[in-house]
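SEQUENCE-TO-STRUCTURE ENTRY
===========================

Subject: a protein chain together with a token-level encoding of how that chain folds.

Sequence line: the amino acid chain in single-letter code, read from start to end.

Question of interest: how does this chain fold, as expressed in backbone structure tokens?
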Amino acid sequence: MVSVPSVSLDLFSDAALIDPYDNYRALRDLGPLAYLENLGMYVASRHRDIKEILSRPDIFISGRGVMLNAVANDAYSGRVGLCSDGDAHRRTRSLEARPLTPSALRELRATIKAEADAVAETICREGRFDAVTRLAQHLPVTIVSSLVGLPEDGRERMLDWAAANFDAFGPLNDRTMAALALCEEMQNYAVTQCVPGKLKPGSWAAKLHEAADRGEIEEMEARFLALTYVGPSLDTTINATSSAIWLFAQNPRQWDALRERPAAIPNAINEAIRLETPLQAISRYALGDFELDGTRVPAHSRIILLYGSANRDERHWSRPETFDINRRNANEHLAFGHGRHQCIGNNLARMEIAALLAALAKRVRRFELHGHERALNNTLRGFKRLDVTVH
């Protein structure tokens, strides 16, 4: 059995979050696992190993939380599907997933396409714009807020709450502490506002309460589950969209290839989220000892899974730093997770991004970058600002 190297590495400093890839490469080169001294946690950084961990929910559980701090784990464990296992997870996931199945989403296709065409037409008339606020945020905010059916009062806080939700996934640093206060505000909103009479009739949130009336879940559980639609359906999709624009701006020949062959859009989305993974890290709790590629994962340890590293693992990907919309195995990325806890909103995210890229491909020959600012978040990777001109 190979010993696990111990490292003094801060993956969550400002500098490391802005440019994480050298650290990821160093961790991959150390072996299947490393022990982070500053956090007292193990970290997995290779594609094969992370996929194996995600494939063993009997050992690596989510029910004790998937965040990197005890405060958030205690707050969310057992309350949301992301932080549950077994029958409890199957029960909540089946409810949450009902409006997000491919068949259920077909009804939205025309609406999403129309919205995508409208926003593409607007920004093309403007010429220069912020691709985050003017483009990437439009569909998730417009579509999702209506579908979830939350009350108008307080809805303007959704983007702040969604970002805070993912900041709270991190270790107990300053960002996490600030985010926990916003998460408490979000939970209070769930308790007081996500209730029958205040929700849009027929909306996703309203249907959760209908399930509670049938005895499928508890009434208070329905309130919290309503907000689980918000975080994953906003920031991750927004970051994936703006990152795709950033990548195409830097790789104009790839944009030419997509315009010539729009059928490549689904694979282009996979490639964009592989290279610039929106959710960079999550964790699991090891119930028992486990051997991972010749190293021992000790029972009762927490393991950080670096999705952003796995998706650039040179052991799995040829030319992993290259953006190639025709990459044959782009769909093998772990950006949406893997296994039982794979992101239930990935079909909606793909539909929204695909609609925007198709609308832009009909109207835009080139993206010209003028400047950008990265958004600092413990687990999300994306932009706060992305100044673009379209030609």
Q: What stands out?
A: The first strand starts at residue 6 and ends at 7.
